[in-house]
Predict the 3D structure of the following.
Amino acid sequence: DVQLQASGGGLVQTGGSLRLSCVASGFTFDDYAIGWFRQAPGKERELIACFGHSVEDTYYSDSDSVKARFTVSGDSAKYTVYLRMNSLKLEDTAVYYCAAKKSPQAPTYAYWGQGTLVTVSS
């Protein structure tokens, strides 16, 4: 079975950092792009970044705030994609999800993880 296990969330103060992990199983890791999303209370889910296993195939959302503070990376040996979040703000509070799709250009994500909650406090 395909599984995506997101972890690493928690309570952090503004200005702090967290690294989220997404461990994949049940498929060939390098054959799929892994995306990170978040959904804040009362808001729609939004894409943060997509890790495509190469610099050319990795991209971020259009948000300047995200691009300046968040970094996505991967470890093929561990079937894991990371999301490093620095200088966290109150508005980063959300449930963070990882998802997998067949290619970086594919329009939809086929598999989703269960999410990990990030709470940023002042």
Remarks:
- The CA atoms of residues 23 and 80 lie 4 Å apart.
- The mean pLDDT is 96.
- The helical segments are 64-69.
- Residues 64-69 form the longest helix (6 residues).
